[in-house]
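In response to the reviewer comment on reproducibility (Comment 2.3), we provide here a single inverse folding case reported in full, input and output, so that an independent group could reproduce the run without further information from us. The structure tokens appear first.
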């Protein structure tokens, strides 16, 4: 297998580091990104920095206008992303109810139990399990188009970069909603499963919208 040029590897590394700083809000929305400052901070040349910024621009995370800036978060995008989740995950969950296997149901049940442990698990781990839970359901729909659209929506969802911290009560309520989805899937009741998924997404949207208002 051919090796990637060193310059490409450097650009990928710079891209990953800059993307992390944007996603964790270390670089705030609207903040100017000066190429010379980034080269000094990361101890790299200007070419990989430029290539990384161009890639971030293509992902919608930075914008260029007399300099590079972290792209501001647009409130309308929040609604759009959740509308996509509402449509895609709702329908996919309904289809999954008819096709889901006992093995996948057992996996989902175990994930819900893990997410019940809000006291000892860090929020990052809860997020990881939560993502896997929803991904597993979309996969159970056995429709590659749903999977593709789900992955695109998830990319946009995490690009929102909102400083959202769910309270313990919200986390517990969210997992109760996961249980409702699970019960619909377990009963192979498409209508019940889809409705539970849509209710869960709507509740999450309300939490995110409220958090954004104070941002």
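Designed residues, in position order:
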């Amino acid at each position: 297998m051919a090796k990637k040029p060193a310059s490409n590897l450097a650009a990928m590394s710079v891209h990953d580091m800059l993307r992390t700083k944007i996603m964790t809000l270390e670089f705030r929305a609207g903040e100017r990104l000066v190429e010379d400052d980034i080269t000094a901070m990361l101890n790299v040349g200007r070419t990989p920095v430029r290539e990384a910024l161009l890639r971030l621009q293509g992902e919608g995370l930075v914008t260029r206008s007399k300099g590079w800036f972290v792209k501001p978060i647009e409130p309308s995008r929040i609604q759009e992303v959740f509308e996509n989740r509402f449509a895609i995950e709702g329908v996919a969950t309904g289809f999954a109810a008819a096709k889901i296997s006992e093995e996948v149901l057992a996996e989902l049940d175990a994930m819900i139990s893990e997410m019940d442990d809000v006291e000892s698990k860090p929020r990052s781990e809860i997020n990881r399990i939560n993502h896997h839970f929803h991904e597993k359901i979309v996969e159970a729909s056995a429709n590659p188009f749903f999977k593709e659209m789900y992955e695109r929506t998830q990319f946009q969802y995490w690009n929102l970069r909102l400083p959202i911290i769910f309270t313990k009560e919200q986390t517990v309520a969210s997992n109760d909603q996961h249980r409702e989805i699970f019960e619909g899937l377990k009963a192979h009741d498409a209508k019940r499963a889809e409705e539970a998924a849509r209710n869960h997404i709507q509740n999450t949207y309300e939490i995110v919208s409220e958090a954004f208002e104070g941002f």
